[in-house]
Design a protein that fits this description.
Residues 89-277 form the Acyclic terpene utilisation N-terminal domain. The chain is an alpha+beta fold and 700 residues long. The protein has three domains: 4-119 and 157-254 and 524-543, no CATH class; 310-505, no CATH class; 573-690, no CATH class. It has 21 helices and 31 strands.
Length: 700
């Protein structure tokens, strides 16, 4: 029988999502070697890096960390947080450290070694690297500009080296700035001698908490067990969840540009030979993943992210009469027409705008309730959910606008929208469930504020007008003019919210690899050690990360993300389209929506968008491949993109899935954004008609 080497629990998808106390306590019924959580991301936009603010409510972050510390004090191993404070900049990190001091004080944590790892980089060093040609693009944009970089807050995404160094230095608690989320989990495993291929793949599955389960959720815990036979098994802690080969394989695609290759500071995770297996009805595992030591720019390169302020932002949400919709210029986002995607709503498709509005005696109370309702709504898992990356699309970062009403009360509003037919069919129940969750977990929030969900569609259209400018007077003038242009002579309804001063607008200025090894080795990711006694932390020392080569040499598999598993042209495109049209006329074609149990879109970084389609059965998967509908030029035509913008379309036999990756039409959270997370761009694919299929039992 295989021997257990290591057992780790991922608390949740990101600190602040929340997770059941019962799940974490259930994990502690067995051996636990580490308690780990990713604490942030760049997905929510550049605002959080540029300002140093947190995305989640402080109360929610503190509650999650409190429970992690309770668990951490019961084990010998470490508690690790990365990308602290959301964006992982210096101010974000300090915000998280203050929360930690409070928790340590309240729980009476004494005599604990703490390591703090800074990820911020002086812009002057980045400018030097730019001039020396030591910044390498990671795809399209953002365009490098010296003036913009000089104004930017810049972080590097650390790999395993700083984390392993801190662990070797005796740290019980690690608070890291911007981090590769997978490295948070892989570092301690590799330090314990576990194969890097297995460690990185386990880390990728764990970094979103229980999202890799069926049903999945980032608001729950997940355990991984590593054995001496080279396998890892994933164990859900909620009895209502299970891990299957399908769910683990499908999650291995999540947020990545390629289904079988993932690129990290130290090398490449290659999953073409990975086996996914079931241990029993509720647990599943992996084996034979490889981590490859690669040539330049690996193993020593670091991805940099930079953000700077664009200016103040003013927003209006204009309620329109349906008859006036034709007057609104085509480029203005209108919920019910083009609020979720730039392309207008096609025939037989419905777009719903959802505006969450709150009212309270204080701005804090209005903001808290709006934020809670929003976070639950976007990630609420419901039966039959296909768009598992997020239920709604946000056009703004931050997504919430706070304001004062004419009667002196305070309000907050979050605009969002969706075209997902499965979500729409379940919307009434989802809304009730979300309200119930807030009522159960945050009753004070409902006691201190009121709310309403405002629905917008073609019969109740709401236009979104937003203006950005650094000069306040010019901002007001421009916004007035842009509102007038959007209305086209129509009158906005009484429910409209006009001239709202939203949070400042920020932009991404940097998303490049730094190739300067001197800066990486000698300057980046300094480690500071503290002795923690409740709120009192005494500085005890400093360290530099120790870098070492890891991974296989001489790997013979394909490491080209432009060719591995690429869907080839099965027959001339014209013949394929004609055949599909004939099948549709004969009634033998099916909607893609009916053939797959997952159809999701999601940002893969700030400059790419990826789609995952996981089919019900082998028959449906193979029919989709044979249809030629997913040959890259056909996908480009379906999505209305230039062919060059399709990075690749890939087949994934391990979970009967198709992955599509495209260059994002705009950089995430740009001024014209409609979907910051890229989580609601799949509607066009859902409506595709695919050739004849013989129904079979699901293999899920």
């Amino acid at each position: 029988m295989a021997k257990l080497l290591y057992r780790v629990v991922s608390a949740c998808g990101a600190l602040g999502y929340g997770f059941p106390d019962a799940s974490l306590m259930r994990a502690l019924e067995g051996r636990i070697d580490a308690v780990i959580s990713d604490a942030g991301s760049m997905d929510a936009g550049p605002y959080y890096l540029g300002t140093g603010q947190e995305y989640f409510e402080r109360e929610a972050v503190k509650a999650d960390f409190h429970n992690m510390v309770v668990a951490g004090e019961r084990i010998d191993g470490p508690v690790i947080l990365g990308s602290c404070g959301m964006a992982g900049g210096r101010r974000n990190l300090e915000w998280m450290l203050e929360v930690a001091r409070e928790v340590f004080d309240e729980l009476g944590v004494r005599n604990r070694q703490v390591a703090v790892i800074d990820a911020e980089l002086d812009p002057t060093m980045v400018l030097d690297a730019l001039r020396a040609g030591q910044l390498q693009a990671t795809g399209k944009g953002p365009q490098l500009d010296e003036a913009a970089l000089r104004e930017s807050t810049i972080v590097g995404q650390m790999g395993i080296a700083p984390l392993i160094t801190a662990l070797d230095g005796g740290a019980k608690y690690i608070f890291a700035g911007r981090s590769c989320d997978v490295a948070l989990f892989a570092s301690d495993m590799i330090r314990h001698g576990i194969d890097a291929g297995l460690a990185y793949h386990v880390g990728h599955v764990l970094e979103c908490g229980a999202l890799a389960c069926d049903p999945g959720s980032p608001s729950d815990c997940l355990v991984a067990e590593i054995y001496d036979d080279g396998t890892a098994v994933f164990v859900p802690l909620d009895p209502a969840r299970r891990c299957t080969p399908y769910s683990i394989a499908a999650h291995s695609l999540y947020e990545e540009s390629h289904p079988q290759l993932q690129f990290y500071p130290e090398g490449i995770l290659a999953m073409a030979q990975t086996e996914f297996f079931a241990r029993d009805a509720r647990t599943a595992g992996i084996r034979h993943s490889h981590f490859v030591h690669a040539g330049k720019p690996w193993p020593l390169s670091i991805k940099l992210e930079g953000a700077r302020r664009l200016g103040g932002r003013r927003v209006s949400l204009l309620h329109l009469a349906p008859a006036d919709l034709a007057r609104v210029p085509a480029d203005v986002p209108v919920y019910g027409r083009n609020g979720v995607q730039t392309q207008p709503v096609p025939a037989n498709t419905y777009e719903l705008g959802i505006l969450i509005e709150t009212r309270a005696a204080t701005p804090e109370a209005a903001e808290k309730l709006a934020s809670l309702l929003t976070h639950y709504l976007i990630h609420y898992g419901y039966p039959g959910r296909k768009a598992t990356a997020g239920n709604i699309a946000y056009p703004l970062s931050p997504n919430l606008i706070s304001f004062q009403r004419d009667d002196g009360s305070y309000g907050a509003v979050v605009p969002s929208g969706t075209r997902d037919p499965v979500f729409l069919a379940n919307y009434a129940q989802i809304k009730d469930a979300v309200i119930g969750l807030v009522r159960a977990q945050f009753p004070d929030a409902l006691a201190q504020a009121t709310f309403r969900f405002v629905e917008a569609d073609a019969e109740r259209p709401v236009a979104l007008v937003r203006t950005i400018d650094r000069d306040p007077a010019r901002l007001a003038q421009r916004h007035t003019a842009e509102v007038a242009r959007a209305l086209g002579g129509a009158t906005a309804g009484a429910a409209s919210l006009r001239d709202l001063d939203a949070a400042d607008a920020y932009e991404w200025t940097l998303y490049h690899l730094l190739l300067d090894e001197r800066v990486i080795r000698d300057i980046m990711f300094p480690i500071t050690y503290y002795r923690a006694d409740g709120r009192q932390w005494t500085r005890t020392g400093e360290a530099r990360p120790v870098y070492r080569d890891i991974g296989e040499r001489g790997y013979r598999g394909n490491l080209d993300d432009r060719t591995l598993s690429l869907i080839a042209n099965a027959m001339p495109a014209s013949a394929a389209m004609a055949a599909m049209a004939a099948e549709a006329e004969q009634g033998t074609a099916q909607r893609l929506l009916d053939m797959a149990f997952v159809i999701r879109s999601k940002d893969a970084g700030i400059n790419r968008l990826t789609f995952d389609i996981v089919f019900h059965s082998t028959v449906e998967y193979e029919a989709a491949l044979r249809s030629n509908a997913f040959y890259a030029p056909n996908v480009a035509a379906v999505l209305g993109l230039p062919a060059a913008d399709v990075v690749g379309t890939y087949f994934v036999d391990s979970c009967q899935a198709i992955k599509i990756t495209i260059d994002r039409p705009n950089i995430s959270a740009s001024p014209d954004e409609r979907d910051v997370f890229g989580a609601q761009q799949q509607a066009t694919l859902e409506a595709m008609m695919i050739g004849a299929v013989t129904p079979v039992l699901s293999l899920a």
